[in-house]
Amino acid sequence: xxxxxxxxxxxxxxxxxxxxVGCNRTKKYPLQGEVVAKxxxxxEITVNHGDIPGFMPAMxxxxxxxxxxxxxxxxxxxxIAAEVMFGKNPSDYWLEDVRITRQSPRxxxxxxxxxxxxxxxxxxxxxxINQDGREIHFSDFAGRALLVTFIYTRCPMPDFCPRLSSQxxxxxxxxKKNPEDYAKTHLLTISFDPKYDTPLVLxxxxxxxxxxxxxxxxxxxxxxxxxxDLRRLAEAFGLRYEGENDQISHAMDIVLIAPNGTVAQxxxxxxxxxxxxASMQNAAHVTAAARKK
Length: 293
What we know:
Strand content: 25-35%
Strand order of the largest sheet: 7-6-10-9-8-13-14
Number of domains: 2
Structural class: alpha+beta
CATH class of the largest domain: Alpha Beta
Number of strands: 14
Order of helices and strands: HEEEHEEEEEHHEHEHEEEEH
Radius of gyration: 19 Å
Largest sheet: 7 strands, mixed
Helix content: 25-40%
């Protein structure tokens, strides 16, 4: 499936988003498009849609759907109509009244879906290359609460990758105020774009969010991996992404890995940095308390 290329200036889109959600009441816009991916674990679908007058131009992006039954029914290739709903917060958006206008062919036998790692299960220990060109593994962070997300440095949407990185920067800065919490936690940002996001590119990108302080890399790694392992990790975490040219459509998933190397919690579009940090601290201290018994 070819995803719509984002061909627009960022400033008008940001302005439209600001005007659209600036009121205290919920706003809605009609959407028509094609489902290109879904994530039942986070109740999200990625839709390649046409222009939404007064809101945004044609593009492909993930949307949360509050009714899990709807996500279960939808399949890639389905043509849908829906309402895009916006709350008070610009990052709080979802789909309602989702209708299939043209159903894609259903296979006679169910497709084999890669098994997602569930909370309490151990994560795959893929090899990653960090911003210093050093090979790292999830197992390197054993004993610490590890918060993981995925971005790409060329992402043009301010409410996607830049928002994720900015929120991680706030967590990093806040944890740094408490040496004990700082030592028991770690942040990891993995690129969707291994061809472009080399260690040198990731180092420059990371320094921008670390206020130029390279010592911050001891607590926050920016990493890449080969396309095969990237796909394996994405499947393990139930994360969907599709790319065309320089644009990558992806969900905003975040994974908390407990100090024992198992998945502790998942987040998608609806989260705050304070919630993420509190969960990290709780995971780190619960494990420490268990060891003392």
